[in-house]
Amino acid sequence: MEVVDASPTKEFFISMLTRDVPLDRAILDLVDNSVDAAYQSGGLQGKEIRISFDKERFFIEDDCGGMSKSVAKQYAFKFGRSKGDQRDTPHSVGQFGVGMKRTLFKIGEEFVVESNHPSGAFKIDVDVNEWLSDRENWEFMLEEVPGDGTHGTKITVQKLLDGVSEQFELELFLEDLIRDIEKAHFKAISEGLKVIINGRRVESFEFRIKASDNLKPVRYKGSVNDVSYSITAGVDSRDYHKGGWYIVCNGRLIEEANTDFKTGWGVHGIRRYHPDFAFFRGIVEFDADDSSTLPWTTTKTSVDTDNFVYRKVQSEMKKVMGEIIAFLNKRKKEDDDFDKQLIEEKPLNNAIESAPSLPFNELDSNERFMTPDSAERVVNPNPLVNVQYKVSQNKMDKLKDVTGLASNREVGEYTFQYVFDYEVGDE
């Protein structure tokens, strides 16, 4: 009997680790780690993350508390974890343990990680090609260094991979990265975290919902097992691309304006998303000390629809959607009835237009979606009707020249009134 060597190669491992994550998302993993460190070292207020890159180098530094030597040895640079090994970072967003390693290998061939932590300072300097050449040794060398009094982390990556250098030179890549971070960490930024990328400050994305005395959104909290959640939903200004559900896990936005089956659109009796529903806004926040229980994928770019907690909460999302969609259907009918002069007022539409748009975290708790009553239909003895007929373009153009009118509609109304006055006389 012969032994078959099934051990992985480093090249294969790195290829599998890095191939399915876009570059901007990989960098976002480093920001996740800085945010975790900031939470663990007293909060986000006054903390800062600085990122810079060009075709030669990538650099990120923060003053968010740093990484301890024990975390570096037992977690951050370790490929995989032993069963039962849990990182002691409650309420983290970087919990999957592959983000930093994946990003460094994806960007370049040389990297240096320096950390100043209250427990001590260290540096890890890696030449990837040299590390790959030793096929048996998977270790990195950690060097203890004198601290400089600040508590934070610095990462420098050089000898950038060809595709990375090309992307770093694109203005579009910079814009996309800024937009990704402002949305993914909108809560952290709103709580005081400062993020600077190539000299540009990242602003906070705001999720807003309209609210007034007679238009009140849903906002309530609950828990499933050890995961707490909150649901906030209502309406805002009509915007097809902003309507939908937003999903947040431990402060990290993982779904933005979702309008597909993952959040209930087009399934279980809920209609598919379309322009009449573009007023809809809903946000669900999940929070847990053990972030592995949260309903997110390992890339933190989507919701895990098979997660037990999410399936339980999704049934509540469906009820909330049902109430708001029913209101939006009434709003549409109200618009149509008003055009037909079957009603004299538009209380539902007016409620939406007049209500101020507020940041969702400033809204009061409210168990149900509350709206004004619909207008009563009136019996209109003389409702408006549509008149439609077709004529040749040549004849229409000649009539426009004679009458001096600009649009087909104006010509139609003018000719109808002309014939009416001639054939009928007074109304």
Structural write-up:
The strands form 3 sheets. The chain has an 8-stranded mixed beta sheet with strand order 5-4-3-6-2-1-7-8. Strands 10-11-14-12-13 form a 5-stranded mixed beta sheet. Strands 9-15 form a two-stranded antiparallel sheet. The chain starts with 9 loop residues before the first helix and ends with a helix. The model has no long low-confidence stretch (mean pLDDT 87). The protein has 427 residues and is α+β, with helices and mostly antiparallel strands. The chain has 3 domains: 10-201, Heat Shock Protein 90 (2-Layer Sandwich), CATH 3.30.565.10; 208-362, Ribosomal Protein S5, domain 2 (2-Layer Sandwich); 393-423. The chain has 12 helices and 15 strands. It has helices at 10-18, 23-40, 69-76, 99-107, 128-133, 162-168, 171-184, 186-190, 308-339, 347-354, 393-403, 408-423; strands spanning 48-53, 57-62, 108-117, 120-127, 142-145, 152-160, 194-197, 200-201, 208-210, 218-224, 227-235, 244-249, 252-258, 280-287, 357-359. Helix 2 (23-40) crosses helix 4 and helix 2 (23-40) packs parallel to helix 7.
Features:
alpha+beta; 427 residues; Ribosomal Protein S5, domain 2; five-stranded mixed beta sheet; 3 domains; 33% helix; Heat Shock Protein 90
